[in-house]
Design brief:
The protein is an alpha+beta fold and 578 residues long. It has four domains: 175 residues, no CATH class; 154 residues, Orthogonal Bundle (Lysozyme); 145 residues, Orthogonal Bundle (Muramoyl-pentapeptide Carboxypeptidase, domain 1), CATH 1.10.101.10; 75 residues, SH3 type barrels (Roll). It is 26% helix and 27% strand. The strands form seven sheets. The chain has a seven-stranded mixed β-sheet. Strands 1-5-6-7-8 form a five-stranded mixed β-sheet, covered by helices on one side. Strands 18-17-16-13-19 form a five-stranded antiparallel β-sheet. Helix 13 crosses helix 14. The longest helix has 17 residues. The protein is flat, with a radius of gyration of 29 Å. The protein starts with a strand and ends with a strand.
């Protein structure tokens, strides 16, 4: 019987069957005398400073010396976070170590037939340590499991660059050469060029081909490893072929909540902007100490708050290893995280990126609460101050934070301002409604919102025609929504703006590698003046081809300069962006 180690100890019945069949420890080892096992108590295993695990360990004699034994099932659980999977078969614990680690299998011990050593520790099938193990009833789960001396585990893991320290109660593991421990605030090695990225993407049939420079520019602007950005986008977008990536230029699943990912995922005006925005958001929220979701500036640290999948970090780390190998480097060329005392370079910019439009026109749509559409001096103020929909139990986002703060001020509600409208917030709302003589239903409606943010005079009339010169990714009632900038007014919720002359560039096969689109000089249609990408937003007064050419207005993604050009209709067409 062969079984991949999971997150829990084996059920007693299964382990007993393994013992009886000779695939586990001898049955006589199940009855350890009270004198041979001492100090059974909780110990802690910590990997990369995060994701600690508590389980029972004990002290027992090993070759005449008292040493600590730890349960292999829980050790395997921790190592799975580094992408190292484990199997237990015929008394051998094998660690399957991916090639993203540098493995040292030199100076292996001389095998011995001493029956005292009843278990072998293996790395990719090669025995690196013979040990004495003890089968013991785990107080945590109440089932029999196998315990191994911690010292031998440390020696084995040293061979894959996972070093550790033991203080008698806590076993701290630190990977010194894993992509899951790369400090993502540092640039990737110089061998990772825009051209090498595109070669790798093309070799794997990805429609992300042509975006190599975008990844490098995002790295250089916001101080986020370009290899990570490439690998993360590959994982989240299925190499750029997912429906969300193709329909919404959303390469990182941003806003694609589990309940309704296709609908909730944010729309981005270009793949280039999606890459730059992700770099900015990750640096601000996950990699900077003090950020809203900061744990550590590594994949392992990000995994705590970014993804529910416990293998998210190791999955991206494995792709990073593939990218590194294809571009002539390895994990040893990347800066490993050394702890919070090691400062990292400050990013050149902390400013959220915007997408510039050239000549875009739109019509304001009626808002059910304001009649017209309110505008704000910046997108952040709009997210906080605008009323989007009635708030009730289950609502979340910045608007809920505003209600919670208001109730704390007005009725001393003692609410945690976490943006989650739960039972406590609902009770506080009902109390406020009762005090104000309102209908007591626990729902915060538009009229009640006026007590927090009264409607002012900054309203654009429904039906009016406006210009739009910038797009910035934002939120509305907890959902990812782009915001538009109206010159001479301010920022508005895009849900109530109908673009009239904005189109998406569409190539014949958006899932192919031929998704880069050349833009030519209108006066010299053979001269390339810029390159855009399938899905990019552009402006056109006439999307129909004239002599196989389509006239467009756009802002160069590298310079921000407003330009005019033509597309060859044989390579791309325009699709209306609603």
């Amino acid at each position: 019987m062969k079984r991949t180690i999971a997150f829990y100890a084996l059920p007693a019945a299964l382990l007993t069957a393994m013992i009886q069949s000779g695939t586990a420890l001898a049955a006589t080892q199940l009855t350890q005398s009270p004198q041979s096992v001492q100090g059974v108590r909780l110990r802690t295993i910590v990997y990369q400073g995060v994701g600690s695990s508590q389980e029972y360990g004990f002290a027992a004699s090993d070759s005449g010396s008292l040493t600590t034994y730890m349960p292999i099932w829980y050790v395997a659980n921790i190592l799975s976070r580094a992408g190292i999977q484990s199997t237990w078969q015929n008394g051998a614990l094998n660690f399957s170590v991916p090639n993203t680690f540098r493995t040292d299998l030199s100076n292996l011990p001389v095998p011995t037939n001493n029956p005292y050593y009843n278990t072998t520790l293996q790395i990719n099938g090669t025995t690196v340590q013979q040990v004495h193990s003890i089968a013991y009833k785990d107080p945590m789960g109440g089932t029999v499991t196998t315990f191994v001396p911690i010292w031998y585990l440390q020696q084995a893991l040293n061979r894959v660059g996972i070093h550790s320290s033991w203080n008698g109660t806590t076993w701290t593991l630190v990977s010194t050469q894993s992509f899951t421990n790369v400090d993502l605030r540092y640039a990737a090695p110089g061998s990772l060029t825009a051209g090498k990225i595109d070669q790798f993407l093309k070799a794997n049939g990805s429609p992300l081909t042509g975006l190599g420079q975008s990844y490098i520019e995002a790295q250089n602007t916001y101080g986020v490893d370009a290899n990570y950005l490439v690998s993360h986008s590959i994982l989240e977008s299925a190499w750029g072929k997912s429906q969300i990536a193709l329909a919404k230029n959303n390469l990182f699943g941003y806003g694609a909540y589990d309940a309704n990912p296709g609908s909730d995922a944010g729309m981005f005006p270009s793949d280039d902007y999606a890459i730059r925005f992700e770099a900015w958001a990750v640096r601000q929220n996950y990699l900077n100490p003090g950020g809203s979701n900061y744990v550590a500036p590594t994949l392992t640290g990000m995994n705590v708050n970014y993804a529910t999948d416990p293998n998210w970090a190791s999955s991206i780390g494995q792709i990073m290893g593939q990218v590194a190998a294809a571009t002539g480097s390895s994990v040893t060329d990347y800066v490993q995280y050394q702890g919070n005392n090691a400062p990292a370079p400050a990013p050149p910019s902390n400013v959220e990126p915007v997408y510039d439009l050239n000549g875009a026109q739109a019509v304001i749509q009626p808002n059910p609460y304001y009649g017209g559409l309110p505008y704000y001096p910046d997108m952040g103020t709009g997210v906080d101050d605008m009323f989007f929909a009635p708030l009730q139990n289950g609502s979340f986002g910045a608007s809920v934070v505003q209600v919670q703060k208001f109730l704390n001020q007005q009725i001393n509600a003692h609410l945690t301002t976490d943006g989650q409208f739960g039972p406590l917030t609902e009770t506080a709302v009902k109390t406020y409604q009762q005090l104000q003589g309102l209908t007591v239903n626990g729902i915060w409606d538009y009229n009640m919102w006026q007590a927090i943010h009264p409607t002012g005079t900054n309203i654009l009339q429904a039906g009016s025609t406006v210009s739009v010169d910038q797009i910035e990714q934002g939120m509305a009632n907890g959902i990812v929504v782009p915001w538009y900038h109206i010159p001479n007014y301010g920022w508005v919720d895009s849900q109530y703006v109908q673009l009239t002359n904005v189109y998406r560039i569409t190539v014949p096969n958006p899932a192919s590698t031929n998704t880069t689109v050349n833009v030519y000089d209108p006066a010299n249609p053979s001269q390339v003046i810029a390159t855009l990408h399938s899905g990019d937003f552009v402006v056109s007064s006439n999307p129909a081809p004239q002599n196989n050419l389509i006239s467009i207005q756009f802002c160069n993604p590298l310079t921000g300069q407003a330009e005019t050009g033509v597309l060859q209709a044989s390579t791309a067409t325009l699709t209306q962006q609603n």
